[in-house]
Every structure is written in C-alpha cells, then in structure tokens.
Design goal:
Elements: H1 9-13, H2 23-49, H3 82-96, H4 98-112, H5 121-148, H6 158-190, H7 193-197, H8 226-242, H9 246-249, H10 286-289, E1 295-299, E2 302-306, H11 308-313, E3 317-321, E4 334-340, H12 341-347, E5 357-361, E6 370-373, H13 375-379, E7 384-389, E8 392-393, E9 403-405, E10 418-423
Parallel strand pairs: 1-10
Antiparallel strand pairs: 1-2, 3-4, 4-7, 5-6, 5-10, 7-8, 7-9
Helix pairs in contact: 2-3, 2-4, 2-6, 3-8, 4-5, 4-8, 5-6
C-alpha cells in the first residue's frame, strides 16, 4: 500500500499558498513603483523648496535638516502655475500608487515572515533595508493621505515627519533597487506579458520554483489569473485617479473629486472657491478686521500706517492667479485686485529694487500666520496685497480686509488678514 508523501512541514504550515506569487508578478509591480516613486520623491522635494525654507526660520518647518537641504534654491515666480501642477502631480500620483504599493507588499509578504529572520550578516543588512523600505513606504503614504484628508493624527508636525521620512524611505528604496534590479530584470524576462494577459484563470500555473522564496511550495488552486490581478490593481489606481485628480484639475472635473475634501462644491459667487482656514477657526472677528483695522508698512525706522480706504485710494492692479495648497487641491485662476507689493515698498523708501518682505497676519495663533517672501516675489508685478477678488471685496474667510497673493507660491504663503509688512527684514524667528 502506497501512502502519499506528506508535504514538508514548513510548506504544510505555510499560509502563503497563492499560485500567483512569484518573481515575475512582484517585478511587474516593482517596475511601476520604480517609475512612480522617484517622481513622487522629486515633486515632494520641489514642494518643500517652494516654501523658501532657507530664507527665514519662520518659513522653515524642518530646521534640523542639515545636508538634506543641499538642493534648495530661490523659488521662482515663473511660470505662475508651477507649484499648482507640481503639487497636483505629487498628491494625485501618491494616491494612485496606493493599490500598486499594497499589491507589491502582498506579493512579497512571504519574505517578510521568512524564518529564520537572520541567516548571515549580508542577510541581516538585506532585511534591515527591507524593513526601512516597507516601514518608510507605509509611513510616508499614511501621513500623506491623512494630511490630504485634513485628518492628521500623528504626533508632531506633518512637515518634518513627512520630510525626514521621505529621505529615509528613498535611501532604503535606492539600496533596494541596487540590490534587486538585476534579479528584477531577469524575472521580467521569465514570462511574456502579452501571453500572461491572454491567460485565463483555468490555465494559470505557478511560476517556476527558484531561490526567491516567493513561489508557494504547495500552491492552492488559482481563483484568479495574473491578468485579473494586474487588472484589479490597475482598475483600483484608475478609480482613485478619477475620484481624486479633479481637485487639482479644477473646472467641471472638480465634481468628480468625491474622495478629496476640497473637491466639493465651495459655493457660487465671487468668493465661491476653496479655502482651508476660516476666520472663525482662528478666532478672528469684526473687532480684529472691522473699522479699527490698520496696515503697518515698515522698513528700518520708517513706518506708514494705512486704513482700508487709503489702500483703496492707491493705484489698483489686477492679477489672475490660482490658490494651490499642499494637500493637492487648487483653484482656477481668480481675478485679484489690489496694491502691488513693490508699490507698498516704495512708501517706506524702496523706490527701486525692493527687498524681500516679512508678512504678518493679525491672526494670533496657528501655523503660517507670518511668512517671509523673497525679493523676486515682491518685485513681480503680479504680487499684490489683494483687496478684491472676482470683482467683489474679499470675504472674511478669504482674507478681508487684505491678503497677499503671489504667483507660484503655496497657498499658505499667501497670508490672509495681513496686519504688517516689514520690507528688508526676512530673518525673523517664529512669531510668538
């Protein structure tokens, strides 16, 4: 009597029995991430540079960055849509890659729980890089998604956590690519993509066994083809693109952004466009912004105090500029009207080549109630202290009585409820 041989104990206990797992499928997901993650990292670095963190401590949310800020440069004002496009790509791409990242983690999960956990020094280093890669990816995607959804729950500021986490993750990513790229290329050549896309579930077979540890030793019967797995991940990414990208594209596409908090209809009329921070949320009311409001313009020992009426009596200019936020949402171009920043600099002695300016809001608490702007931002003729938008006075939530609007600047750098402009002094600490 022949008794069937029992599978090896390790295979018999293994819960990882999917016949789809293998180096080829893992490499397909890896190839998509290899293309997408560097772009995600690059747009993130550019987003950080847009805050001009090396200009003033008040702009810098990561003061201990050291050499990690080696690439910083003076953020330009041309083209005026650059930050809007950059941040839209960064946020939308990060969301779209979520199904691919999860699929990649699913495909390699047997490696994450392989025993023994460490077999040699080289294996220990490989496991450490894998831990930093997986942990860093989950941390970056999770903090980014929570910030986009305006439900940030991590202790500490989003900016330093996301910035430093990005460098840790990308360092581990580069090490992983250096170690695994040759194997990935061999795996991609092991199966024909077009053939796999034509293979139904009934003819799906496990990949050939190798030393990768990804192929199941006792595979279960397939319930899905590799074509189905790739299609499911692709459909997930496409769905996320459709329900998210509208917050950055704007126009009629904004109504499709059902998963983006700033994709909802913000209302109609001149002030019917998105905001993040309301006057009530920062405890401002008519006592701060009513008839008693004054704007102080200063440079050195020169000071000029202006009422709203005096600002309105100055020459008014128009600029068509969007508001674009770090969360990925942006508006269409809005028609702003107000006084040029360089004209205000002229009032305090800077008739030509005005310097940078330190902008302070009457807001007493919260982040970004003061920012420093570079000289190139002040000198741009489109940079305004705006008093009106789309033909009407600013609403309270859009910064009444006066707000800054600068081309190609993050939304938080366009300070609302401005109370003071100090030209020629940008090296200020954080406001008290």
């Amino acid at each position: 009597m022949n008794v069937p041989r029992r599978p090896p104990r390790s295979a018999w206990r293994s819960p990882w029995r999917s016949p789809l797992r293998g180096p080829w499928l893992t490499s397909v997901f890896g190839l998509v991430l290899l293309c997408g993650l560097p772009l995600l990292f690059l747009t993130g670095l550019l987003s950080y540079a847009a805050y001009n963190p090396d200009l003033s401590p008040v702009n810098d949310k990561t003061p201990a960055k050291g050499l990690l800020g080696f690439y910083l440069f003076s953020w330009p004002t041309h083209p005026y849509w650059l930050y809007r496009v950059n941040q839209g790509v960064h946020v939308t791409l990060g969301i779209v890659l979520v199904p691919v990242l999860l699929a990649k983690l699913w495909s390699v999960i047997p490696k994450l729980f392989a025993l023994p956990p460490v077999r040699s020094l080289g294996h220990a280093l490989d496991r450490l890089s894998l831990l930093l890669l997986v942990g860093g990816a989950l941390f970056e995607f999770l903090t980014g998604l929570l910030n986009v959804q305006l439900d940030y729950v991590f202790p500490g500021s989003f900016y330093p956590l996301h910035f430093y986490g990005a460098w840790v993750f990308f360092g581990a990513f580069l090490a992983h690519v250096a170690l695994r790229l040759p194997r990935m290329l061999r795996a991609l050549r092991s199966l024909d993509l077009r053939a796999e896309l034509r293979t139904p579930t009934s003819r799906t077979r496990p990949e050939p066994r190798d030393d990768s540890g990804l192929v199941a030793t006792a595979p279960a019967a397939p319930t899905m083809s590799r074509r189905g797995a790739l299609g499911m991940v692709g459909l997930g990414s496409l769905t996320l693109l459709v329900v998210t990208a509208g917050q950055s594209i704007g126009g009629p596409w904004r109504r499709t952004a059902v998963l983006a908090p700033r994709g909802r209809n913000p209302g109609t009329g001149p002030d019917g466009f998105q905001i993040n921070k309301t006057a009530a949320s920062v405890h401002l009311d008519d006592r701060d912004l009513g008839a008693a409001w004054r704007l102080t313009v200063a440079a050195g020992d020169r000071h000029v105090t202006l009422t709203l009426g005096e600002l309105q009596a100055m020459t008014q200019y128009r600029s068509a500029l969007p508001i674009a936020c770090v969360e990925g949402w942006s508006t269409q171009d809005q028609a702003w009207e107000g006084v040029r920043l360089r004209d205000l600099a002229r009032l305090v002695g800077h008739a030509t080549d005005p310097p940078g300016v330190f902008v302070q809001s009457v807001q007493r608490s919260g982040s970004f109630r003061a920012v420093a702007l570079r000289a190139n931002q002040v000198r741009d003729p489109r940079a305004l202290l705006a008093l009106r938008v789309n033909g009407a006075p600013l609403s309270l939530d859009h910064g009444y009585p006066a707000r800054v609007i600068v081309p190609n600047a993050p939304g938080v750098m366009n300070t609302k409820w401005v109370g003071r402009l100090t030209f020629g002094a940008t090296d200020f600490g954080s406001p008290a």
